[in-house]
Amino acid sequence: MSETHPAIDLGAMQAAAVQACALLKLLANQDRLLLMCQLSQGERCVSDLETQLGIRQPTLSQQLGVLRENGLVTTRREGKSIFYSIASQEALAVMAVLYEQFCANTK
Questions:
Q1: Choosing a second label site near 43 at 20 to 30 A (CA), which of 3, 21, 71, 89?
Q2: Looking at per-residue confidence, does 104 or 94 come out higher?
């Protein structure tokens, strides 16, 4: 008995591939990947990220800016502190897989 497959919407697949490639390009930077890994575990303030990851302030600010501009993270201000959290559900899902594969055993 032959199995029929639903028709493929090539245009939708191509658009999804463009989105996936854009996300993967953003995560293909070591500092951004480290930041997203930390943020996948919950909200963090800038000073905590700097201490935990050893990323110097200028680089940290630059990479957080890239993530924010691309909609991957969002900010919340509390007094003088700025807190970051993941805003993209797609990025969070990718980070969950990466965390399980590469980070869960490093503790």
A1: 21
A2: 94
Task: Find the mean pLDDT for residues 45-71.
Answer: 96
Evaluate the CA torsion angle 86, 47, 79, 65 in order and state its sign. negative
The CA-based diameter of the chain, rounded to the nearest angstrom, is 67
Residue 68 has pLDDT above 70, yes or no: yes
| Residue 41: CB atoms within 10 Å | 11
Average model confidence (pLDDT) for the chain? 93
3-state secondary structure of 80: coil
Strand order in the sheet with 73-78: 44-45, 81-86, 73-78
For the record, the structure tokens of 16 come out as: 């999804």
What distance in Å separates the CA atoms of residue 80 and residue 4, rounded to the nearest whole number?
59
Provide the token pair at 26: 């953003």
Q: Which two tokens stand for residue 5?
A: 């497959």
